[in-house]
Amino acid sequence: MIRSKRKALGQHFLRDQNIVRKIVSLAEIHSDETVVEIGPGRGILTRALDETGSKIFAVELDRQLHENLEKEFADTPNVRIIQADALCYPFEDLPAPFAVVANLPYAISTPLLFRLLELRSRVSRMVLMLQLEVARRITAREGGKEYGLLSVGVQFYAEPRLEFIVPRGCFRPPPRVDSAVIRLGIRAAPKVAVKDEAFFFRVVRAGFGHRRKSLRNALKDGGFPADAVEEALYAASITDGNPQRRAETLSIEEFALLADKLFEITMCRGARPCAVTRPDHVQ
Ligand code: SAH
After folding, report:
1. CA-closest residue to ligand 1 atom 17
2. pLDDT tens, 139-172?
3. How far is Cα 198 from Cα 186, in angstroms, rounded to an integer?
4. Beta bridge partners of 162
5. Which residues of 135-146 are buried (b: 16+ CB within 10 A; e: fewer)?
6. 35-44, 105-114, 185-194, 274-283, range with the lowest pLDDT
7. In ligand 1, which atom is closest to the CA atom of 104?
């Protein structure tokens, strides 16, 4: 295969059986479970998953790799190799619940992760390998520079843990970055209840939209009316004592409180009469 295609598909094959064993044991797969693997490649993880006796659906985009795997697993009824783009594949059609165990194609690891989180009611847990830097952002807590939309977006629905780091030398060809394995438990309900999830994510996205700015300016630049932002920050006591506070210092709970206040304030400016009294300082 031409090198550029390999690169575009993120084809870095694991060659370390120890890492494979660690991934499978972290996933704690039982023989009566269903497992989805994304990007099986040459099948090193697929073979190890097969040993658990579970039912495996492995989705591989590359036609040649798919063909090779189909041949290899032709007599293995537990393993189904599917040729498809995992970003578009209708995982809803697979028997649920399923665990996801995969060494992800790194170029699309973030959209894939969000796609899998959309399917969270069907997913029991995930054990994923991705770039170390992305794994750090996914698991970051507020206060650090790695904390952002990705951290809040994932931690809202799941409990991610960075389990171990995998040096680039464990792959062939070696990628340019180190990798990490994370385990994500799916929360029974989002980490915090919010009035409107889409609105909550609009607030979080706007907050992180201008990282060098204070939260209040980032929200205003993000399209929220200036006086509503002031009112919501005051009502949620977010910037008391620190008007320059930035989004990366807010916990998910604080984002939720702020989003709910902003939601109430901006919604009640619509057709319905406003039930909220505005505090003096913003009048
Ligand atoms: N799991 C294997 C290979 C990982 S490399 C191992 O650990 O060795 C990533 C794999 O994902 C490659 O096989 C690549 O062809 C596949 N891939 C890339 N984009 C994909 C997509 N959109 N859908 C499904 N598979 C994809």
Report:
1. 39
2. 999 999 999 999 999 999 999 999 999 999 999 9
3. 19
4. 182
5. bbbbbbebeeeb
6. 274-283
7. 9
| Element at 60 (helix H, strand E) | strand 55-60
∠ CA 169-22-133, rounded to 5°: 50
Judge contact between 98 and 35, C-beta under 8 A.
yes
Separation between Cα atoms, residue 65 and residue 11, nearest integer Å: 10
Number of domains the chain is built from: 2
- In this structure, is residue 282 part of a structural domain? no
Which residues constitute the domain of residue 40? Answer: 2-186
Six-digit token string for 132: 């170390």
Q: Within 10 Å of residue 231's Cβ, how many Cβ atoms?
A: 22
Instruction: Output b/e per residue, 193-228; b: 16+ Cβ within 10 A.
Output: ebeeeebbbbbbbbbbebeebbbbebbbebebeeeb
State the distance from the centre of ligand 1 to the C-alpha of 111, rounded, in angstroms: 14
**Alpha-carbon distance 213 to 74, whole Å?**
57
State whether 177 and 250 are in the same domain: no
Q: Which residues line ligand 1 (CB under 6 A)?
A: 9-14, 38-42, 44-45, 59-62, 65, 85-87, 103, 105, 108
Alpha helices in 89-160 (DSSP H): 109-118, 132-139, 149-157
Cis status, amide bond into 97, omega within 30 of 0: yes
The CATH number assigned to the domain holding 118 equals 3.40.50.150
pLDDT digits (tens, 9 = 90+) for 180-210: 999 999 999 999 999 999 999 999 999 999 8
Write the burial class of residue 160 (CB in 10 Å: 0-12 exposed, 13-18 middle, 19+ buried): buried
Residues 42, 94: Cα–Cα separation, whole Å: 23
Q: How far apart are the first and last CA of the chain?
A: 66
Both 94 and 175 in a single domain?
yes
